[in-house]
């Protein structure tokens, strides 16, 4: 299992610094979720880890090697990324899209092989897309399209999967479908998964390790049960809330304060203050 970490990583755009001198280690074989307010640098950090954004300073290390010193093929054989809201060319079928995941293994000397075919079929089966293989990607539902892109990443046969908001624009049923798929890939195959999520409650349910990005660095990281507190939500998101235990999953459940129906008086001082 390859190790993934950053060392003194500084990222930015123009005159703006987004991440400053960050030292971070991603747990191997776990699901890590990045959380934080809009514009805090979650996606920027993920793009840099995937070698899509060059650091101003510092480095991303893959198995102890600066990822910038590795070839594109070397990186693509160890790490796959699903960017936010990817778009396939018109008319491209699911099968054609998934086959793109085998590009790190192709060369003038090594053309399409039985090994490539098996990897593609395995990816289609894992994402329940075998029956949709000949369908154009743009004809699928949102959840099906997202599964097709994940299948392409699976066809790369990497130990690390990076996903930037994989549930964006999906309804709740499709969000659960995608997160359950990623959970199974982690638990059944031991893949290291790093993803950005906006929904704090789903992040707490699926994450083994959570990283709260804040003010060019990390506010807190650890198991959701350890770090998800009203104080963290107040500081990182500027939102007052109560954090209770999910009665079904036992994970932290964030209940934000806001307008709507009358707030029930539950006996907590903070709740009474907002009632």
TrEMBL record:
Q: Where in the cell is it found?
A: Cell membrane
Question: InterPro entries recorded for this chain?
Answer: AAA+_ATPase, ABC_transporter-like_ATP-bd, ABC_transporter-like_CS, P-loop_NTPase, Siderophore_ABC-ATPase
Query: Tell me, what is an example of a GO biological process annotation in this record?
Result: iron ion transport
**Pfam families assigned to the protein according to its UniProt record, in alphabetical order:** ABC_tran
Q: Which GO terms describe its molecular function?
A: ATP binding; ATP hydrolysis activity
- All copies of the ABC transporter domain together span 4-240
Tell me which UniProt keywords the record has, alphabetically. ATP-binding, Cell membrane, Ion transport, Iron, Iron transport, Membrane, Nucleotide-binding, Transport
List, alphabetically, the Gene3D superfamilies matched: P-loop containing nucleotide triphosphate hydrolases
Q: What is this protein called?
A: ABC transporter related protein
Query: What is the recorded membrane topology of this protein?
Result: Peripheral membrane protein
Gene Ontology terms: cellular component: plasma membrane
State the organism of origin.
Answer: Caldalkalibacillus thermarum (strain TA2.A1)
Using the record, list the residue span of the signal peptide; answer none if the entry has no such feature. none
UniProt-listed SUPFAM superfamilies: P-loop containing nucleoside triphosphate hydrolases
Q: Which CDD domains match?
A: ABC_Iron-Siderophores_B12_Hemin
């Amino acid at each position: 299992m390859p190790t993934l970490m950053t060392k003194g990583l500084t990222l930015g755009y123009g005159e703006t610094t987004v991440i400053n001198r960050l030292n971070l280690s991603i747990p191997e074989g776990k699901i890590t979720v990045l959380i934080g307010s809009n514009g805090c640098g979650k996606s920027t950090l993920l793009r840099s880890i995937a070698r899509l954004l060059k650091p101003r300073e510092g480095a991303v290390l893959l198995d102890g090697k600066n990822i910038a010193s590795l070839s594109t093929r070397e990186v693509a054989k160890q790490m796959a990324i699903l960017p936010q809201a990817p778009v396939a060319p018109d008319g491209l079928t699911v099968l054609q899209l998934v086959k793109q995941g085998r590009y790190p293994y192709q060369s003038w000397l090594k053309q399409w092989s039985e090994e490539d075919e098996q990897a593609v079929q395995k990816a289609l089966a894992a994402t329940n897309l075998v029956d949709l293989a000949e369908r154009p990607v743009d004809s699928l539902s949102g959840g099906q399209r997202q599964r097709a892109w994940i299948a392409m990443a699976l066809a790369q046969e990497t130990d690390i999967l990076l996903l930037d908001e994989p549930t964006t624009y999906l309804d709740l049923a499709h969000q659960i479908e995608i997160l359950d798929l990623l959970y199974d890939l982690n638990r059944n195959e031991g893949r290291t998964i790093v993803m950005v999520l906006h929904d704090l409650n789903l992040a707490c349910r699926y994450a083994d390790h959570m990283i709260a990005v804040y003010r060019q660095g990390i506010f807190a990281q650890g198991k959701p049960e350890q770090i998800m507190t009203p104080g963290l939500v107040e500081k990182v998101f500027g939102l007052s809330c109560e954090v209770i235990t999910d009665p079904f999953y036992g994970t932290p459940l964030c209940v934000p304060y806001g307008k709507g129906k009358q707030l029930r008086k539950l006996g907590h001082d903070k709740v009474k203050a907002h009632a």
